[in-house]
Specification:
single chain; alpha/beta; 2 domains; 7-stranded mixed β-sheet; binds S-adenosylmethionine; Rossmann fold; 220 residues; globular
Length: 220
């Protein structure tokens, strides 16, 4: 099989899959730093904790925008969009992302979207916490520990969830990709189904995962 993880971040799912299956696995993400780390770990056969992990076949990583990649990467049997990684760009561009997924699949290929829907979020949902981060190694380089400050606030009128991440290391440095602020559109299950159908997908299935995640499965 030829498989694509989009967006793959540091490649944790790609690397885990590559340790179990002898497939052509690709990961793309817009963040060059994350792609660099993923590539480094694949090359050196390291898991997310930078512990040795034997890979059946080395996966490939590329920095790319999920709104525009199907001209160069396509013919996939399976594309997965994991861990709440859809709804970043507004209604019209989000549909373009689905079209890219569609174009990058082989006929009969499968798309999986693992997400949170509007039904799974309370109107007054808010999260605000700080957590200590232990010292870590990225790409063989050590980082001191620090504090992660994480907030999520739901706006029921716009059906958007605003998230901020700030990682302040003990040496006063904010990690290069932080602070990150994002606004994610929470679509309802019906909205997902309708967008998938409009894009041309068929055989759409809706599955529960561990709460509050929903998984959509669709075929080209
Ligand atoms: C919530 S993370 C999930 C990553 C991964 N699926 C996982 O489970 O770890 C969302 C990712 O989307 C990436 N991203 C944001 N905008 C993107 C875009 N236009 N194209 C590709 N990746 C993008 C971010 O860099 C981030 O790594």
């Amino acid at each position: 099989m030829k498989i694509l993880d989009v967006p793959c971040s540091y490649g944790k799912h790609v690397i885990m899959l590559a340790s179990k299956h002898n497939c052509d696995i690709f990961g793309i993400d817009i963040n060059h730093i994350e792609i660099d780390v993923a590539r480094y770990r694949a090359e050196h056969e390291l898991d997310v904790n930078e512990k040795p992990l034997k890979l059946k076949k080395k996966p490939k990583f590329m920095a790319a925008d999920m709104r525009n990649f199907s001209d160069i990467l396509n013919n996939f049997d399976l594309i997965y969009n994991w861990f709440w990684s859809f709804g970043y760009f507004g209604d019209e561009e989000d549909k373009k992302v689905l079209k890219e997924f569609y174009n990058a699949l082989k006929p009969n290929g499968i798309l999986l979207i693992h997400t949170i829907t509007k039904e799974n979020i309370m109107p007054d949902y808010i999260t605000d916490w700080k957590r200590e981060i232990l010292p870590l190694k990225i790409k063989g380089k050590g980082y001191p520990g620090g504090i992660l400050h994480f907030t999520k606030v739901f706006n029921p009128e716009k059906s958007t969830l605003h998230t901020t991440w700030i990682v302040m290391l003990n040496n006063g440095i904010i990690l290069p990709e932080h602070p990150v602020v994002s606004s994610v559109r929470m679509y309802s299950i019906d909205e997902y189904i309708s967008m998938l159908k409009q894009t041309g997908f068929r055989k759409i299935e809706v599955h529960d995962s561990y709460y509050p995640i929903t998984i959509f499965k669709a075929r080209k």
